[in-house]
Amino acid sequence: MISKLSRRSFLELGGLAGLGLAAAGCSSAPTSGRATWSMWSSSAEEMKVWEDFGTYVEQQLGVRSVATLTPSSGYSTKLDLQLVGGTASLVTALNGTLIPTYAARGAHRPLDDLIAADPDFELDDFYETSQRISTFNGKTYAIGFDVAPTVMYYNKDLLKKQGVPLPSRTEPMSWAAFRELTKQLTEPGEQYGFTCAPAIGDLVSWIYCAGGNVMSADGGRSILGEPRAMEALEFVIDLFVKDKVTPPIKNLVTENSLSNFLQGNVAFLQNGPWQVVNARKAKFDWDVIPFPAGAAGSTPRVSGTGFAIPSGVREGAELDLAWKLLKTLTSTGALDIYAKAGRNNPARRSAGSAFQPPPANLGIVRNILAGKLAGGHAYDVTTNWNQVEQLLGQDLPRAFLGQVGIREVIDGLTPRLDVLMRQHRDTVSQATARKR
Amino acid sequence: MAVDTPPATSTYLQLTPAPTRRRRSREALTAWLFLLPSLIGFLVFTAGPVVAAGVISLLDWNLFSSPTWVGLRNFARLGPDPTFWSALGNTAYFTLVSVPLTILVSLALALLLNQGLRRIAVFRSLLLLPYATITVAVAFVWIWLYIPHDGLVNAVLGWFGISGPAWLVSDSWAMPALIIMSVWKSFGFGMVVILAGLQAIPQQLYEAGRVDGASPWHSFRHITLPMLSPALFFVVVTSVIGSFQVFDQALIMTNGGPGTRTTTLVMYIYQTGFKNYDQGYAAAQSLALFAFIVLITAGQFLFQRKLVHYDK
């Protein structure tokens, strides 16, 4: 039945609707008794894993799990706004490269007091590199859920077709041997020896293997221009520009080394085991081997991610629930779900066996983390890593394109990088002063 | 009731009694109620953020630590910041090339559509499609078109014996590639406005011109352009403002590269605020951009007195 509304009724209804909307807006704030957590999620497969996490949380804690899932590209910005607006979840996922950034800004709380007060929590079950990635200025700010070294993927079919013996599953090859192999496997325009992203995230593994780093040990200045780092930079740039063993770069935004590899005409791909889940879609036989060894051995970057508690979660029942939730999300049971779905190598030793082949040699990931095979180097970052990455991201690709020499790029970038490094050191000093 | 019902005579205005104060108040209240949603929207989403940006520009604030008052120091940082000036230069380059090109294409297509074509609505809709499509989708399509070896753009150039560049990774061609895409994306808006302007020109003017022996060029030069000048002025002003705010296509297609060749001012503001967590400096940059746009728009309005013809 349709009835006419009087103006008074209309205004009353409008007012009620406004109040309702306001109440709905306020309801996004964390509520005690609801296990709220934030995570990035960019695919249906990822969504399924986080749904299973939610079910697991509800089973373990007996409270409703409320996950805020955001595509990975917008996750950081959304988290910032939620943290500032006081609407962040009790527990938030953080990429390892951003943990120092959030910790230094006081956006997340140290967990050491909670760990110390909880005899059930076994920090030792987490790989040392995961613990290192989660630490800033001597304090633990996150508990890892995955951790993994960069490995080298290779197309077994392509190597067999070319009559090239398959590389060792345990012994890393030398850079010189790798370079020769990639040249041998390259047929310009048809087939290529190697692919990686033209960015610091991939270059850094070569730099670590050469014994270099992006910043000095105290984090106060850039050492990309020093001989060991330059050796690595020149080696990789030469693969692109001089040897031309890499597929041509078509554009710098959507260029994807994995998609190059999946086309089946690239022999080697540098990437983390987090890409195993996507590489399994390949229509050829492939496997993983240790990263090629430079002067410092095979010590590629080890990356990881973790869960942290925002500093707005202060005390009482809310903090108690946050800690229980964080423990549940990083428990062996939850990480088994994560690893069985093939997402990545879990951060706990006790969950490692759930991340299983294919590929046949996937076990090297755990062996590298356990120090039984080759090695790894925790991804060293600054408290302003976004800015460092952005600065490097502007000019490094031009060297990959052959538009400018790598020495010229590094010489041009070093003064600006030094400014950022000094800012980083000041931030660390301020954080240390606050701690005292 | 009798008061509100107009009589069927032309003396309605004379016969209607003057509104009472009570009625005027009711009308005013009704008007305010209707205006209120827009007013709230303007205050919350436009005026509020502008004022907030003004305050934030005087602070050093990383979003989480307590902000500290730094006065005009953020504005003083603009001068020695090479990336800011480079981004401003890129934005100016984009504007100076893309706006005239867009106007020319829009004008040409509007003139074509105004030739009494059959099914003009169909053509108008088709030509408006790029403008109606979201920039993200268009940008991804153009990334494909610009692929150096297999892309359609270089394939077409190849038919004429031209070896096309690696558009989006080239130092010298990345910005022209963005401009071409932006012209394609935005000419539809200008075309519709200009077409409306063309259709509003009285045909008697052309007839009088023909009687006086004016050639088609003379008609265009002395009738069409002057009569169209208000529409053209509107398109120029809105296009310049839009071009100074270019962001999404550059972010998606080149991410500001190679180097900083396509880093625009809005992209730099976004990086400063949300990647570098330097809210104060980002706000200062935003206000600088606002000032540039105001100055340029004011300049255009001053200039229009000489060039824009309003038929009174």
Q: What is the total tally of β strands of chain A?
A: 12
User: What amount of the residues of chain B lies in strands?
Assistant: under 5%
> What is the 3D shape of chain B?
globular
Biggest sheet overview of chain A: 6 strands, mixed
Radius of gyration of chain B: 26 Å
Give me the strand/helix succession of chain A: HEHEHEHHHEEEEHHEHHHEHEEHHHEHH
Coarse structural class of chain B: mainly alpha
Structural class of chain A comes to: alpha/beta
Order of helices and strands of chain B: HHEEHHHHHHHHHHH
Note the quaternary state here. Answer: heterodimer
Helices of chain A, by number, come to 17
Q: Which consecutive residue ranges of chain B, at least 5 long each, have pLDDT under 50?
A: 1-12
Helix content of chain B: 55-70%
- Main sheet of chain B? 2 strands, antiparallel
User: Which overall shape of chain A is indicated by the principal axes computed on the Cα atoms?
Assistant: globular
Structure description:
- Chain A has 436 residues and is of the alpha/beta class.
- Helix content of chain A is 45%, strand content 14%.
- Chain A has 17 helices and 12 strands.
- Chain A has helices at 7-26, 44-61, 72-85, 99-104, 112-116, 128-133, 156-161, 175-184, 200-209, 227-241, 257-262, 276-279, 316-329, 332-340, 364-369, 385-400, 406-435, and strands at residues 34-40, 64-70, 91-95, 135-136, 139-140, 143-149, 151-155, 192-195, 266-271, 286-289, 301-308, 377-378.
- In chain A, strands 1, 2, 3, 6, 11 and 12 form a 6-stranded mixed β-sheet that branches. A 4-stranded mixed β-sheet of chain A has the order 8-9-7-10.
- Chain A is globular, with a radius of gyration of 24 Å.
- Chain B is an all-alpha fold.
- Helices cover 70% and strands 1% of the residues of chain B.
- Chain B contains 13 helices and 2 strands.
- Chain B has a two-stranded antiparallel sheet.
- In chain B, a hairpin with a 7-residue loop joins strand 1 and strand 2 (68-69).
- Residues 1-12 of chain B have low confidence and may be disordered.
- The chains are: A alpha/beta (436), B mainly alpha (312).
- At the A-B interface, helix 3 and helix 16 of A face helix 12 of B.
